[in-house]
Design a protein that fits this description.
Length: 451
């Protein structure tokens, strides 16, 4: 909540009716809570800066946004590297040790939630509980996923079916090298409509977009210019939310000193481009947005467009009706939505009758797209079949059989059903055969996924 003082004409997130907090160094003692941890999120490069404090948590009233933490348990952390386990009350990187009959779920805002489970607890139960605790209305967008670490900089994300029990997850061989994450899995056709319907879900979606960009999830699709442009928008958003702008100016030096460029840009870019070039290009966009104003930085027409389209959506929006920070968030998502892999998932399939290898893509813009990845005739485009989600239930294809990798079939079904329900408004019955028809085969067969 933002508090305004009519006496000194200043605004602050701190309640002026609460006891005054010294502007100098202070010492606080925090006790860890089993459900919310220490109740704050902090980040930074050369300083440890508090970004968020959970209301009612152990840190509420003791820590405040923009507080700089200089020591933890008597150890100075001002000059610690980002990967140092002393940079916080718990390690930043890696997978924490598992606790028997307790599932730890990682959220996109940096927090975690722990759930005790029994033999009957399912993934769907955890999703419903998280939506209740986070007060999320648009539940159809969310899903639990498993994140596999495949190196120091990359990871693989797999969505989970709702009827899977937590005991099955804990007993799997890969449970020690994975972590459970709460994902905004199915992107909306119109982010502004999502904001109007459910601001909390929109904010979670935006936080996930930020994290995916910084961790390099879109590294193969994103160009350098787009990375810099989005970093400039991210800096503007933080400055406006924290009231750090002076006459519309965003201090790049302050952002870099307190948060580090790694908060805004993927590591692969920082390692391959000179910092001086990065600073020069970010300043160019910051100055451009300041000169043109936020209406130019994120025009109503662009932000009200549906994802991946060039035509405005039915949602009407003017710069006067939406705050500047929301406009910046919408622009950030809109730039990201033009990436081919945004919200999409591709699967290698084999057409059973001809044994031709093909690529099946579940795309929120085009529906189900099946492409022949073989050689083309005379350099033409690859032949493809595109089926929009809204016509899936009204067509019937007899004898259309695809073989899918055993470990990818359930996720293919999850994506098809998730986007169908999101765009059509009702569940899609979807069956698949667990019998491959071949001995020692790693394939299972979708035999009637279209009704």
């Amino acid at each position: 909540m933002l508090h305004s003082s009519h006496i000194n004409e200043r605004s602050s997130y701190r309640d002026p009716r609460s006891p005054n907090i010294s502007s100098g160094l202070r010492r606080v003692v925090l006790e860890r809570d089993e459900s919310v941890g220490y109740g704050f999120v902090a980040a930074g490069s050369n300083a440890f800066v508090v970004q968020f404090v959970s209301p009612g948590g152990p840190s509420d009233g003791l820590l405040f946004p923009n507080d700089r933490i200089v020591s933890v348990n008597g150890e100075n952390v001002e000059k610690e590297s980002k990967s140092s386990p002393r940079r916080g009350a718990r390690p930043i990187a890696g997978f924490p040790p598992s606790i028997p009959n307790v599932l730890r779920v990682f959220l996109e805002n940096g927090q975690t939630r722990s759930f005790k489970y029994d033999a009957a607890t399912t993934v769907k139960d955890v999703c419903s509980s998280l939506c209740d605790k986070l007060q999320l209305i648009s539940r159809r967008h969310f899903c639990l996923g498993l994140e596999y670490s495949i190196g120091n900089r990359s990871s693989k994300l797999t969505l989970l079916e709702g009827n899977v029990t937590l005991q099955e997850l804990a007993s799997s061989r890969a449970s020690s090298s994975t972590r459970c994450v709460f994902r905004f899995a199915f992107v909306p056709p119109d982010p502004y409509a999502l904001y109007l319907e459910d601001p909390r879900s929109f904010e979670y979606f935006y936080s996930q977009c930020l994290n995916d960009v910084v961790c390099g999830r879109f590294a193969f699709d994103m160009r350098y210019e787009a990375c810099i442009r989005m970093a400039a928008l991210h800096m503007q958003q933080i400055s406006m939310d924290s009231h750090l702008t002076k006459e519309g100016r965003v201090s790049l030096s302050r952002m870099e000193k307190e948060l580090g460029l790694g908060t805004f840009l993927p590591t692969i870019l920082l390692e391959n481009v000179k910092r001086s070039e990065i600073r020069k290009h970010i300043r160019f966009y910051l100055k451009k947005d300041r000169m043109a104003g936020h209406q130019s930085a994120c025009t109503p027409r662009v932000c009200s467009q549906s994802i991946g389209t060039e035509e405005p959506s039915q949602s009407s929006m003017t710069s006067a009706s939406v705050d500047g920070p929301i406009l910046i968030r919408l622009k950030y998502i809109q730039i990201l939505s033009h990436l081919p892999s945004f919200g999409c998932r591709s699967f290698s399939v084999t057409f059973r009758d001809s044994q031709v290898d093909m690529m099946m893509q579940v795309d929120p813009r085009s529906g189900i797209v099946v492409r022949n990845c073989g050689k083309t005739v005379n350099g033409g485009a690859h032949p493809s079949i595109s089926i929009a989600f809204h016509i899936i239930s009204s067509i019937c294809v007899q004898g259309l059989h695809f073989l899918v990798e055993n470990n990818e079939l359930s996720e293919l079904v999850i994506h098809i059903q998730g986007y169908f329900e999101l765009q059509v408004g009702r569940p899609l019955p979807c069956d698949y055969s667990k019998e491959s028809g071949e001995e020692n085969s790693d394939h299972r067969m979708i035999y009637y996924y279209i009704y």
